[in-house]
Every structure is written in structure tokens, then in C-alpha cells.
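Page 42, continued from yesterday. The earlier attempt failed because a stray header line got pasted into the input along with the sequence. Redoing it now with the clean sequence only.
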Amino acid sequence: MMFAVEEINRDGVILPGVTLGYRIHDTCDGYPWALQASLSLSTGDVGTCRLSSSELHVASIKPGAQSVAVLIGPASSTSSRMVSSILSPLSVPIISYLATCPCLSDRSKYPNFFRTIPSDVYQFGAFARLAVHFQWTWIGAVVVNNDYGLLALQVFQEEIKGKGVCLEFIQSIRKDYSDADTRRAAITIQAATARVILIIAGFRYAKLIFMELDKRNVTGRQFLASESWSTNYNVQDGAITRVARGVIGVAIRSANIPGFDRYLQSLNPICRPEDDFLRGFWEKEFGCSLSSPKSTRLCEHLSNMSASFPDKPSAARAPLPLCSGDESLEGLRHIFTDTSQLRRSYNVYVAVYAAAHALRGLLACQDASTAKNSSATCSPSKHINPAELLQQLTKVRVGKLHGDVLQFQGADIPAKYDLVNWQITSKGSLKLAVIGLVDGLDLYLNETDIQWSTGSSQVPTSVCSESCPPGTRVATKKGRPVCCFDCIPCAEGEISNTNEFWSNAGHSACVPRQIDFLSFNETLGATLTAVAVSGTVVTTAVFVVFLFYKHTPVVRANNAELSFLLLVSLKLCFLCSLVFIGRPSVWSCRFQQAAFGISFVLCLSCLLVKTVVVLVAFRSGHSSSKHLMKWFGPCQQRGSVCLFTCIQVTICAVWLSLSPPLPGHEVGHQGSKLTLKCDMASVVGFSLVLGYIGLLACTCLLLAFLARKLPDNFNEAKLITFSMLIFCAVWVAFVPAYISSPGKYTVAVEIFAILASSYGLLLCIFAPKCFIIILRPQKNTKKNLLTR
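This time it went through. C-alpha cells are written below.
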């Protein structure tokens, strides 16, 4: 945090003319001290728990003399919930780098809370997906009895529900890590049949349990590590290598902070006399005392800091030689100076930059042009309101902060984790290797890079019951999880196998199931094909007749252009039924429903417009009808048909892009047959297509019914009424028949409905006209048509 603040101050671009300051308090890993420290930082008072600790949990950042604080921390979820609730009325922003409880994402309860670490929902969801991926159906869990452990276990159990994964045991441990808890957990793991163990606890307990297992010579268990201990060097002790090898853990994603390694190496307690941690570390590593430093020449290259720390009394130490002042951290190999994998540290670094950029958004009002455009979201630097700073944090976006884009989504940032593996080196020690990535709900693994606990390249097996061998079947055990079952012999005349096989007539052997679908070669398919082709030929013949007699009164009196378009749409209706016949494929399943829906809507649109034209034409004597006819000419008629059809095209496009029908199969009532079909993934999409067709049909029927008694020798509304009655009757009967038909007959029912309704429209509307045109040409006169 200190490095980030100094880096921002030196940069001068993010906050020009503003110097950030900070205070760091130690919460001593206690809730009361966390609250006291937070209130102290928010109000400006100084307080400390007066206990030694190497962790700095809570910090505040303040712009110059302006007393507006941003808290970086606390580290624990419980402390964060408490502090956020207390400081929420004051609108003090809190950015935690380690609080992972999913509950903290609730903006209604914690509106001032942010974090730079993902919620546990993603971490323990990743463990569930790992179990499913590697087919570990039998798992044990050791859980610390606090908010972190219990909430994490709840998330894990919800994720594995319904996925065939079961927990053999849940061993709860107390937060104080007692020896009794350690022994009890080790005994449980040793006695369990599960070979994959999930440990949700701190690093201290993980190490204690490994040491206890090592004493009992328990090896070959595949441990899954939560982020609280998966990367902790204190656990990776050579004494527990046999037990801990192969650990797979979810870890905070590592990142690089340019210049941080040089910053650490340049630290010197001579230049930072108020830094108790650095002082103790220095004396321990170099074995010398800093009570009377002899040299301050190393301070010259370091910039002055605007930091203020409370003084702490030094503990009594054994006499040590005085430090010479020539000691340096450069070249020192220590975990403190190792910046190869910055995880929690990077979260703190990101939190500081988020606060700085939020402050920058407010201070932008100093620029008159900026203030003019964003006066509602920023304030002058001398009057910064904590609520405004909190609001600015919700909108902050830092592009490419050392490779990452920082933007809060509510309280959270996008969830990303490393998947790590504890591997044995050639020297026999444990090293940390990154083997994959968790990106939100997605899991990416390099399985070839994993070193398993068994020492083998084979994925460990952890199941309650082995898969049943041929000749037996699964029988559930009463009172046991679904993962545990017995394998009992198959009944007489039956054998176990996959769905692709069925027993022969004598029940003596397996034979392949017969693949069944509506094909062109079988009688039913050939008959439907012949009927569809016949309908296409008849429609084409009617089209030719109308084209040849297009100047006659019968053709002209009934809107010749719409009649030709109606014949084209009927031809498409007949042809689309052929797509339903044959072996289902990805494209046939998608095309058949779309072709059916669009063809019939085009047909019904033509009929609807023709009906409206009839209604208007027979009332042409009224002045209002003449005015209406003026605004419903040929261009408007074509536009209406196009509009109605485009609506169906849109419905089909959305349906097929989101959840299209796909090829599938089912074992019907005849077990020897495997019926291939198009699975309707979205019933809603199919219902919308049919519903829109039904809406147009009902509207057309109603209008035609109203115009059926208009006086004329040849009233087309009567023909449309009869055709719509047949159309509606066919499709009303279609619904129950479609639902109740088995196997390939479901497809046959839909084809029959398409053909029946198409023939009904063709015969009812065009047969009387063709009869007059061909057999009664003497009636094909204008005088005869206008006779009342």
C-alpha cells in the first residue's frame, strides 16, 4: 500500500497537485480492534491495539489536509460486515482486499463496501466443477467453524446438487486449532473411503493436519486447497512432503507490480525509524541491533514519505552487535523480498489505485470544461463529500492496470483465480505450479501439467461404489447417498448395456436397436411426399391458369396481385412439408420449423389483406370508404403483407439463434427402436410461431365472417370464410394429436396438418374461380360479377 501511494504521488498524472497520505493500523485479527481502527481512521483519532503483528489490516487514504478517508481493509469477512454496517451512514468507502463472503455483495446491506478479491461463490463453484470434471463423486470436507468455512461449504453443496457428487463426511474444526480437532480430523480422513479431501481452513490448521497425517503414515489422499492456504509457504514444509504432494488449490490470481522488487530491496530501517516491522525484520535477518545506527547515507536516494505511524514500545531483546549501516536487502533470498507471485499484495495495490482514480474523478471539477459537463458527479477539491467519493467508486474504471482492467460490478470485480498444484522438485521440496485458470464460471485446465498425490499421471479415483460390471444393474442403498449403490445381477433374460442395444426375440443376446425416423422410402413417408408434390403441381397449374386469364374479370375482380402471391405462398407451404421427411440433421431441424412458420404467415397475410380489401370495396359508396380506399391502395397492401411476414421472420430468427431445435433420439414404447427426431429445446419459441399463425387466422376468419353476406354474385369473403374454418379446425385438432403421437408419428401429424390446411385454402378459394374460368367462361364477365 505504501508503494502504491508513493508511486501515485511521484507520477503526478492521476492526481496532479494532490498528495495522498495514509495511516496504517493493526487490527490484531480481532473484531473490536478492527472496529476501533476503522472509527479512528474515519474520525482522525489515533489508536492501536499495542500488540505485535506482521499483518497490516486496515489503512486509510486521505487527500492532503482534507479529512475524507477510504479504508483499505479489513481482511476478514466478519470484520468487513461489522465495519461496513457501522460506517455505512457516514458513507465512508471500504475496499477490502481479502473479504470473500458472498453476503458482502448485497448492496442493500453494505452499500459502502467494495473488494478487489472475488466472492467465494466462484472459488467453491470451481471446486464443484473440478469434482464433476474429474468424476470425483465421493469427497470429504474439513471445514473451519466460522463464517468463511460454513458459507463456503454451503456454496459447494449447492453447486454439486444434482451433479452426482456426494460428501462422505463434513469434519468441523474450531477456530482456535486445538490438538483434539487436529487428531479427530486426521482420524476421520484416515478411516474414510473418499480419496479426495477438501480443506476449507487457514494455513495453520492445514499444516497441523498434514503433520498429524504424516505421523499416522496416511498418504495417497488428493487434497483440494481453498485460497486461504493454497499458496502459503508456511504450509509447504519439507516434513510433510509425502502427504501434501499433489495438492490442487484455487489461488488469488498472481500479478506483477513493476518496480516493487526494487522498492523492497531499497528499504532500510535507518531511513524509516518509525517502521517497527522493518526494524524487527532487519535485526533478525542481519543479527545486529539498530539502537544506535552509525550511518544514514543510504537514505539519500529515498523520497520523503507523508506517512504517520503510532509509536510502539520495542520488546526486550538479547544484546546484539550494532548494525554497521552497510547491510542491504539486495540479493537477500527471503519470502519478504520474493515478488514473483504477488497475490494479496496485488489486491491491496489495486485497491489503492481504485481509490485514487475515484478521487481523480471528483477533483476533475477544477477544470472548468470538465465541471461544465459533469457538475453532478464531482466536487471542488476543498469540499469533497464522502458520499460523492463513494458514488464515484461505483463508476470508476481504470484501463489496463498492468494488464488488468479495473471496474467494480456492484461490490465486486470480475472473478479470476489461478489453479495451482503443489509439485515435488528434483531436490525433494515442494514448489507451486500454475496449472489452470478460473474465469468467472469457466474452468481452464492444463491436465498434462498436473502432478497427482499418487505420483502417477492417472487421475485419482474417488467414488463410493464402482461402476456396475456387465450382467449387473444399479440398486440404491436405503439411507445412503445416491453415490453409494449395490450391483445386483440382471433379471432372467436381461443383460446390461447402453441404449443403442436391445435384446433379441429370444432374449438371449443383444442386437443393435433399429434406427427409426420418417423416411422417404417407407409407405407413410412416400404417401405424404406424393400428396405434397401433388399439391405443389396443382398449385402451379392454378397459377398458370390465372396467369393465362389474368385480364378476365374473375381474376381482376379478386385482386390479381395478391392472388398470385397467395398461390406462391401455398406452393411454399406444400414444399416445406418435404423438409420434415428424412433423417434429422442440424440444418433440417432448424429450417423445417422456420420454413413452415414463415410460409403460412405469408399465406395468411395475403388472405387478411384480401379480406380487408373486400370489406372496403363493398362499402365504396360511403365517403369514408372512398377515403379509406385511397389510403389502402396496392402499395399499402404490399406493405401490410410484408410487415405481417417480417414479424414472423423476427420470431423465428430469435428462436433459432437462442434455442434452436436440435437432432436427438428417444427410446419409445417399443424398446427395440431408437427414434431420431428434432428435440424442441424451446417450447416457448414453437408456441410463439404457432400462436402468431393462429392470431392471423382468427383475425382473418372474423373479418371474412363479417363480409360473408355482402351482396354479389361472386363474394370472395365467403370463400375465405370456408377456407379459414377448415384451417382453424385442422390446427385445433393438431395440438392434441401432436402431443399424444409417439415417435416418428409426431412428425407425420405435423406434415398432415400442413398439407390438409394447404389443400383447404387452395380448394376453397381457387376451385370455384377455376371452375368459372375453365368450365363456365360465359359467367366470366363484368356484368355477371356485378349482378346483385
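Notes: The longest strand covers residues 430-439.
Reminder to self: strip header lines before submitting.
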